[in-house]
Structures are given as structure tokens and as C-alpha cells.
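ARCHIVE CARD
Drawer: 12
Card no.: 0347
Subject: one protein chain, sequence and derived structure
Cross-reference: see card 0346
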Amino acid sequence: MILLLLSTVLILPVLAGWGKIMERFTGSLLNGISGNIVTGILILSLIWTVLAFFIPITIYVEIPFVLAGILFFFIKKLYLEFYKFSKKDTFLIGGISLTILYTGSFYPHILDHFGYYVPTIKWLTEFGLVKGISNLDFTLGQMSVWHIFQAGFSNFSDPFLRINTVLLIIYTLYIFERKSWVQLCFIPVLLLFSQSPSPDLPVITLSLIILNEIIKGNKNIGLLFAYSVFIFSIKPTMIWLPIFTFLCSAFIFKPNYKHSIFGILILLLFFIKNIWTFGYPVFPVALGDLGFSWKPNPEVLKISSQYAIQKTYDMQYTYEEIQKFSSYDAIRNWFSLEGIKSKINIIFIFSLVVFSVFAILKKKKIITLICISLLIKSILVLAFSAQYRFFIDVFFVMFFILFIQLSKRNSLVFFSALSFLVIGVLSFPNFIRQHIPSFKPGNFMAGFKKEQLYKPSTYHYNKFETFQTGNLKFNISKDYPFNFDTPLPAISSGYVLDDVQSGIFPQYTDEKNIKKGLIWKKLTPEEKKELENVINTIKNTDK
């Protein structure tokens, strides 16, 4: 916790300094220190994304950017912005920040932390963006902009990968600067995402900031659209936000195509990044085939698509069973899944209906546009893979609009009560395991450890086996399905099985230079025998 506080004290000035640098070229979207910091997040994410095409995001990248940000922070005397808070607000911000730092110091409990977030950051810091990396481990094809941003601070500023904890403190500063008290109610829920660099937390917090700015009358539509596209680039399920800002530009503000240039450039960078790592413009959708040689094998894409459909039903049905569902069965079974997922699904649809009725009764153009945007996003998610993690942000938006006038006092009471509950769950996870066994993250919460008061809790495993097929020498975690601390190049055992099922396997384009990328090749009879031995080894190890 103490080391996490030091990381925060270092990173905030760096972001504020870079935000001030960028404002000289693009102007300012938000006033105050939180505005500088949020702008800094945008500019460093974009710069590091471009650099990652050419070089790894190592400490040699991090140091000059950190020094430049701190230098500008003091030259422009941005520290004076902190003195603008009243003594009472400073006390409250400090108390909320300590709560955030405490919860952020727990062990990571989101499974994607081990199978997706950490491996992605390892690749970025050791090699940068690798062409066709999805051929090695399909999940790595995402390479979220948020993980590029985290990689930029992961060498010494934030080696524990707690950038989400820092962002929650930034979010708190924004709430107090803009006096948007209802947003205090969201922080306790978001505390559950603070132990990992999960893209869910930044897209929720940043989208609510942009939404609040539009409602408050911010008319800088060019930057609003740019930030909306940036949030979409972190997680494409946030498509409702750029749709909403575009609709606002068309029906509320005076439309001007020049205002879209910055946002379009960010979108192009997002497409290029995805094409480079995945072969298609938007991961994991195989649309927009430009014929690149490093795109994934069609059979692997098919397996991924089938898995997404199974995840819609929480893996409670086989793909073959789902294919036999009638339209009525598909809806009924989605609403009647075992465990908490069915309740979330029911609440989601019910909330959409209530919010739609609310929008109709209110007859306010901006609320109507929000409703239309959320409905478009919801339809797309339901059609693709109706998992609750893809539409969780919709709950935040609807709550925000319905309770936007919530007072400071009531918001603080709600924050305190819910934070107490979340801290209790994190500290004593057996409670949630017993009472909500279908809440899977609860099974991976480790509880409080006194060591976390000094430094955030992290896992170490580092047991692996090494194999070679063709020109690819690779590592697989031993007795564990994920490769969060396995030396690179590492492949999850599940993807080895998928590749063998597809009759292909990844190979280097140039085995002397990993940066040149990976492609897939059909297995020869000899290679099939090699991989059969690998699979047998994996299965025997799993036993």
C-alpha cells in the first residue's frame, strides 16, 4: 500500500505534465488538475502505441517520458491546482484515496489478469507490438491500448501493475472538481477492478467523465469525439459512446467535419494496431479481410466464435446444444442460467425497458440520444456474445442519468456503506463464496495479508516446460493454464489443443527476429507427432 502510494505520487505529476504539453496543440477539454491528467493519459497512450510498432516499451522509454512530465509539472506550477480544493474536500479526497489504495493492494482475482493482461504487458515490454501475435496465443491479438499505457509505467513507476488504482484516484479528483457527486456511488463497485489493469475500469470511468461533460454543456465536440474513440479503442464494446457523441454533433451541436479529424486519426491507429497483431481491423471479429498473410487460421476463428457463443450461456451448454435452440429456447435459457448470471441478464433487460420509458417521458433530446446509443450497443452485444461483462457499463450510465441530482451527503453515505461491504468481501472472501458461489471471481480472492500494507500483493509461479515445433521454441506453464510469469514466447495449453485440432501451428516469419512476426502453417506428419507428445505431457501434468 505504501509503495502503491509512492507510485501514485510519481505518476500523477507525469500525467499532468504531459496533459499540459498536449493542451498546447489540441486545446483543453476539462479544466483543473483532473483535466490535465486525463489529457496526459490520452497523449501517452497514443505515443506509446505508435512507438510499440517499432520498439519494446522498456525502461529506456519510460524514464525520458517520466522526467519530461515531471519537469513540465513543476515548470507550469501545476501543483498549485491541488490547493484549489477546500480543506473539507481535501480531507474527503484523502480518505477516499486511502480506501482505493487499500483495496488496490489486494491480490489480483480476475482470471484475465493471468491469461491476458499480464502476458500482453510482458510482450509489450520485451518486444512491442508483434505482427500476427494472435497466431501464437489468440487472446494476445487484442493488445488493448490500456495495456500499452500500463506497459509504459510497468518498468519502475508501477511494477505491480496497479494503474487502475491510480486512475480511480484521478476519477475522485474529477468528481470533486466537477461536483458530480452521484459518481461517488460508482467507486465502491470499481474497487473490484483496481487490483488488475482491467480495461473495464478505464472505459467506465472515462466514459462517465465524457458523458458528464456533454450533459454539463461542454461543446468542444472535436475533443469529446476524440476521447470517445479513444475509449472505444481501449474496449470496442464501448461503441455506444462514439455513436452518442456523433449523434450529439449531428443533432445538438453544429456539425463540422473538421471536428472529427483527431478522432478519426485515433480510430485509424486502432485499426492499424489490430491489423498488425490480429490481421483484421477489430478483434476478435473476422470482418474486413484485407488478405494479410498473418491473419489467424479460419478454423481457429471458428473455434473462437463457438466459444463466444458458449460464454453467452456461461458454458452451461455445449455449442451443439445451443445450435439446436429455437428462438424461444435461446431467450428462455439465457434468462434461466444457473447462478447469478441469469439475475444479471434479467436486470439488464428490465433496466433497458425502464430507461427507454424514462427517455420517452422526459422528452429531452440528449437523454433520447443516450438511450438510442445504449440500445444499439446492447443489440450488438446480444447478437455477438451476450456476456454480462460486455454490457456492465450500461448499468453505470443508466444509474448516472437516473440519479444525476443525488446530493453530496447522500452520495458519500452510499459510498461509505458500499465501500465497507466491498472491503469486507475482499478481506474475507469466504463470505461471498458461501452466499454467492456462482460469482466466480470470489473463488480467486485471497483475502487480507499484512504484507500488502507495504506493497501490493502479487502472485509468483514460474513453473514451465519448454517444447519446440518447427522453428518455434515455446514455453507452457506447468500445472496451470495461464502464462502470467512464464518466459516468452509462451502459449496457453488450451490454444495448443485448439491448434492441433485445426491441424496448424504458429511459426516465426524469421526465427532470428521475433519482431518480424508469426504466421500459421499446416502441420507435417512429424510435427503432428511432436505436438501429440506435447499434448500428452500437458494432460499427464494436469492429472
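Annotation on reverse: The chain is about 60% helix and 5% strand. The chain has a mean pLDDT of 90.
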